Amino acid sequence: MAKLSLFDRRRQRVRTALRARGGQRPRLSIHRSGRHIYAQVIDDEAGRTLAAASTLDKDVRGSTGATADAAASVGKRVAERAKAAGVSAVVFDRGGFLFHGRVKALADAAREGGLEF
């Protein structure tokens, strides 16, 4: 078996902890690149994405998406779309990313938008 990077080990550790205490809640999964940030609410049992938002959406504040302001805009948008899909409680899957900066801004905005986690 190939040796996993620190990022991949952290991602596996986070995902395992979510499975242990997540129960039947959908998962709010985050991906952060150097230029954009993506968020989606995933129902793992059905294997479907219930809601999604990213800085690639046309009307997100911040042109490049590499700011905490743009991440907060994505958080509000994914919360709105999740509520429209009937989801009010999720587990937050930060992947291998640290809960800091853009990831934290997105999470805080999603909480303000009405998602519980």
Automatic annotation (TrEMBL):
Keywords: Ribonucleoprotein, Ribosomal protein, RNA-binding, rRNA-binding. It comes from the Bacteria. Pfam families: Ribosomal_L18p (PF00861). One of its GO terms (biological process) is translation. One of its GO terms (cellular component) is cytosolic large ribosomal subunit. GO terms for molecular function: 5S rRNA binding; structural constituent of ribosome. Belongs to the universal ribosomal protein uL18 family. This is one of the proteins that bind and probably mediate the attachment of the 5S RNA into the large ribosomal subunit, where it forms part of the central protuberance. Part of the 50S ribosomal subunit; part of the 5S rRNA/L5/L18/L25 subcomplex. Contacts the 5S and 23S rRNAs. This is Large ribosomal subunit protein uL18. The gene is rplR.
